[in-house]
Amino acid sequence: MSSSSRPKYEQIKDDLRLQIIGGDYTPGQSFVTQQQICDIYDVSMLTAARALNELEVEGLVTRRRGKGTFVAETTTVPRENDGTANNILCVVPSLTSGHVSNFVRGVESVCTERGFHLLLADSHGREDRQSQALQRASAGGVDGVIIYPVEGAADHEAVSRLRRADVPIVFADRYWPEISMDAVLLDDFAIGYELTQALIRRGHTRIGTLWGEIAATSVRDRLSGHLRALQEHRLPVLSELTALRSYVPLNARAGSSVLAQMLKAKPTALLCANGFVLASATNELNRSGVRIPEEMELAGMDEAGPYDALPLTVASAAVPSYEMGQRAAEILLDKRIGSHDEDNSERVVLAVTINLHGRVLDPGPAVPRRSHRRPARNPAQ
C-alpha cells in the first residue's frame, strides 16, 4: 500500500474505514489489533497505532482498556449539510507505479478542494479485490467511484450494483468497452503512433514491442497506433515483433522467453510498455551481450519506473497522470451534483507529450539501420 504522496497510516486508515462503512464489521464487533495491522500491511507498531487513533477520532472505533478495539456502536462519517456521506472511493490496480500515484494525487487535490474525503482501495492487480472494493462501495457510505480498472473482463455485476445504489462511476486510463460510462483517458493511440514514427525516422524498420499488461483498452489502442505507423511507412507487420505477449519483470523465466524469441526476428529497436518493462529488458539485453544503443535503441510508452532507465531511451511519452486524476474527480463530482445518466456519458481524451532524447532525423525516407548480428563462434576456439 505504498504511495509517494500519502503517509502509510492514512492509506491503512482509509482501507480500514472503507471496510467498516461498507459493512465488513458489525457495530460492537472486535476490530483488528495493532499487531494484526502490522502483519497485514507490513508496517511498524507506531504506524498501526496512528491509523487506529485516526479511526477513533473519527468515531468509527472505540478502545476499551484491557479488552481491545471495537467497532463503534453507532459509526459516524463526515457529512455535508445535505446529509450525504461526503466520501469518494478511488480504486486503483497498484500504488507502486509513479503514474498511478500521481493520478491519485490529482484525484485527491480536487476532493480536498471541494470538501470530500478520498477513500483509496489498492486492488493489487487482482479482479477479486477490485470487485470486493466496488461491492463495499455499493453497500453505502460512498458518494461516487473512480475506477482505474485492472486488466481483464468487465465486472458487470459490480457496475449494476453501483447503478442500483445510484452511485456515479468514472473510469480512468482504460475502460470496459461494453459499458457506457464516463471516462478520462490518455491518447494511447498517439503514444503508439508517435513513438513508432520517431523510431522510423531514426532509421528503424524492425521494431519489437514489449508489453506488461495485455488485456486493457489502453494497451490495444497503443498497439493500434504502432501498427498504423508501420502501415503508413509500408513496413511489414511481423507477428513475432507485434504480438500482445506479457513481458512481466517479476517473472524472469517467462519474460526472458518472450524477449529471447523476439531477438530471433532481429529488431533494432524496442518499444517498451513502461519504465519497469524497459528496465527489465535492458538487464536482459545486457546479459545477452546486446549493446545499447549501438545495437538496440529503446523507447518508453511512459516515463514511470526506475529513473536510471530513462536516459537509455531515445524517445518516451510523458503522460498527464495528475491531470487525469483531476479531470476524473471533477467529472465525478459534477455528475454527483447533477444527472449521472449513463446514456449521456462523457469521454475525455488527454493529449500526451513525446520527448525525444536523442537526435531525430528529419521526416522523409527512412535510413535503414542494420539489425544486430552476433559474431559466429569459431568451433576451433
Automatic annotation (TrEMBL):
GO molecular function, one term: DNA binding
Region spans: Disordered: 361-381
The HTH gntR-type domain, residue ranges: 6-74
Database matches in Gene3D superfamilies: 3.40.50.2300, Winged helix-like DNA-binding domain superfamily/Winged helix DNA-binding domain
Designated name of the protein: DNA-binding LacI/PurR family transcriptional regulator
UniProt cross-references to CDD domains, sorted A to Z: PBP1_LacI_sugar_binding-like, WHTH_GntR
InterPro entries in the record: Peripla_BP/Lac1_sug-bd_dom, Peripla_BP_I, Tscrpt_reg_HTH_GntR, WH-like_DNA-bd_sf, WH_DNA-bd_sf
Taxonomic superkingdom: Bacteria
Skewed-composition ranges (Basic residues): 369-381
Keyword tags: DNA-binding, Transcription, Transcription regulation
